[in-house]
User: Fold these one by one.
Assistant:
Number 1:
Amino acid sequence: MSAKIENRASFDLIRYSQVWEDADLLLAALALQPEDVALSIASAGDNAFAMAAQGPSKVYAIDLSFPQIACCELRKAMYRQLSHEEHLLFGGVVAGNMDRLAVFKTLDLSDEVAEYWRVNNQPIHQGFMATGKFEKYFGIFREKVLPKIHNRSRIEQLIEPKGAEERAAFYNKKWDNLRWKIMFRLFFSRSVMGRLGRDKEFFAYVEGSVADRILGRAKHALTLLDTSQNPYLHYILNGKYDAAFPYSLRAENYEKIRANLDNIEFRQVSIGDFLDDYDGKIDAFNLSDIFEYMTPEYTDELFEAMLQKSSLGARFAYWNMLAPRQCGKSLREKYNLVTDEDANAEFLANDKAFFYSKFYLDKVK
């Protein structure tokens, strides 16, 4: 089996039309400064835009997939040319009507990106931020599975404001029934998620029950976190944002992102190839959960390539969803890379995108 995910999984479709990682957590961890140069996994762009809003000197956002880069470049044009309300309507993440194809024709895009969306214009018509493979997977859960577990009134009760004790009581007495346990485990099983949501190769190094681990994290989010202010939960349940928005879609952050658009650059490239061609130092890394798809040996190989290009004080932020991965002990000692397990646990405890089993913030001392 190839160690590189690009040799095992397809990257010719939009897997994610939104980013399912908590930008608030990421920004708190990386603590970006005006002089920083940052490297980020692009995905659908949300967290790269959130990073740019902090005013670092540069954010390089990279992805292996051209469709993901096309999503990011489209979002960049939306920030530059559309109002906040228009952005949400065009993306299809709030209720409302818009002639999206007409709006698309007004957006200033490169020839390559514009042609991609002209050929693939159905997502534009529908509201492209709701049309990635992972977003459609949640749509199936919301429309086909969840109604067989709870009625609409109970779903709305789940996300009403409550204190911690009331949330726990609601979950234990009204939400956590046998149908929830059975259907959740079926729908979020390795086989179903690999076919409908992610790619089966993304689970190549995962051991044990996928569904049981995600169910445990879901219980954490539904009892210990404020469900009324969790945008990721709201979108999963409603297919729209309403009372809570992720960082990149909040009205108060819109102008900060717009003011820093020239400092973000999207590239279709692997991390290894990017680092081979990059001559400077990097201060902050948003690595998503990319190590999930790699062997421990290749994880260390990639970490060493990044550490060789890291500044003193560089920060590395990354998640584990199911496969345990972090920089190896020998590399940590060689490059004086440290992590604070207590701080990492606190970050994870407050992670609103609750699918992940581990969060790491590593720092070069």
Note: DSSP finds 19 helices and seven strands in the chain.
Number 2:
Amino acid sequence: MTLSEELKWRGFIQQATFTDISQLDGKKWTFYHGFDASADSQTIGNLAAMMFDKVFLRHGSNAVLLAGGATSLIGDPGGKDKERVLQPEEVIAANVAAAEEQLKKVFSGHKFKMVNNLTWTKNLKLLDFLRDVGKHFSMTPLVQRDYISQRIGDGGAGISYTEFSYTLLQGFDFLHLYDNYGVNLQLGGSDQWGNCLSGVELIRKVRGAEVHTITLPLIIDRTTGKKFGKSEAGAVWLDEVKTSVYKFFQFWINVGDADVEDYLKVFSELDRGQVDEVMKEHNLQPSARVAQRRLAFEVTAIVHGKARAESVRRITNVLFGGHEYSELARQDLISLKNEIPHLVVKNGTALVDILSDTGLAASKGEARRLLEASAVYINGSQFSSEKPSLERADCLHGFVILRRGKNDNALIEVR
């Protein structure tokens, strides 16, 4: 596939300044893509943008990845119905450092240039900016842009000059990168279309040069109708402190059948033949969630590394896929400590007490009834009601996964 063909197949084209997207093919591009630093981690919405970038890298383009140390201090009004709360400079600086580390991990194996727009704006003089940049922007088209007109129209919350100026700063970024790195293409989300055009128009006016921009659609969860953004409830973060690797993996396992093929195209690097093969197998038995399991592994490997992805896949296969508990390594079990109820007990502790203390049973009376009904499992084996306690001999690598029924689990560490 050519670059334009792959972009279209993966669903990455929303808007473009090209009259025909095939104009991308056969030319060397140096693109830039800016990443917001308003939070201390990127989300899977940002990950979609990174995967967009990686298509260009696979087709030989050069990349300049920008962490918005300056623009995040201002706040992008795009997609917001009210003014953002400004954050302290030290918070934004820490967020930029976190963003850069995540970008390095996701783009591992690719060559790219990392920049921070605070570098060329922190010493910028106001009068110079107004004369050299502001002079080239007409107020009429700016106030007609959707995200501005909605804020200043009837019922709008209004917009400060601070946020209004955001689009000029982004246009200036493109000009600076054009002059210093030869950037001739900007990539962004569809909510950035107006801001992207600011750079295209500024470069045309002050340099007499033609540059371009392409935006990708915002990724929407069809089940909830919400985008994958930082400010959305239940955001899925790339930082494992905010969203653990286990929960990250489970998110992808639980996506709906209506979304899974699109997500394989957006969030994995599988090619068309591989995606078709996965979906063919998936459609034979949708309840087996073959596509979701492949998606979960591919995305987790990109964000957290192959070893972590293989570990959480083993855990998932054992807990929910009927695989043998002997497949689990000690580190797999350790990683479960923060994911399911965890209890440390002494050798010989009564099972009635353990079931009650972990919450697998509401009371000791219910615990006894569960044991009598043989509804309790130790590392996948049905527990005998004749065995009243948990022993070290029952352990796998020092742990027992205690299960009630089909899906209620607790991790017991026997010392």
Note: The mean pLDDT is 92.
Number 3:
Amino acid sequence: MTTIKTRFDGRVFVPEQQVNLPPGTEITICLPDTFVPVEVEQPLLELLNSLQVLPPNPDWPADGAEQHDHYLYGSSKSP
């Protein structure tokens, strides 16, 4: 028997590694009687939260979003 770790996305089971089966193959998944939820990691959310506690950088341009072409590519500032 082969064991494959999967995650349930609310609709389907998604294998965490490649499974060498032809499309349409039927398999049986045996679920345990008790379930212990695994804590989901949210690295981007953690990064965002950690960035919000940093003080503002006075060297960053205040119009960076408006004038991103100027700061990224050196084009003229738009009016």
Note: Residues 51 and 57 are 12 Å apart (CA to CA).
Number 4:
Amino acid sequence: MGKSSLINSLFQGEHAKSNKKQGKTQRLEFFLLKKNQKENKLFIIDAPGFGYVDGPILLKKKFKYLIYSYLNYAIRLKVIVYLVNGEYGINENDKKEIAFLNNFNKEIQLVFTKVDKMNSKEIIKFITEASLFSQDLVNVRQEILLTSSRNFFGIENLRSHLYLDIEDPTKE
């Protein structure tokens, strides 16, 4: 249960195709999340993962190019939500990608997934490591969110954070 499961938890339904085998997202997929017709709209974009791609190395490079190209031109993008697999914590690949994403001048929200599979010592260890790593990256938010799609832990908190990122349309 990863990225697609988290999106489905946010939407409270089956919107993103979830696979038992990770690394199946092959394109940018856009989802509209809103509270009601009168409120601002929030789009969530599911992008191919950085960590694991089910395919050749060339495919992984194409995905990175797709994402980086999108980030260069996405002027209305408010925040990049970077998912960290809570079972393993932040790894060297995550650190490299987060440091690179920091260059796009977009806020980055770290979200640990699958926290239901962690004990409290692991949570403290992994959050501390991620906090120490990101403290000098100007675009990475210091608050790290914890979620679990399996038991919906932290889903409402993440949803609230995402809604807070929407600007008032009268300010544009």
Note: The first strand starts at residue 29 and ends at 33.
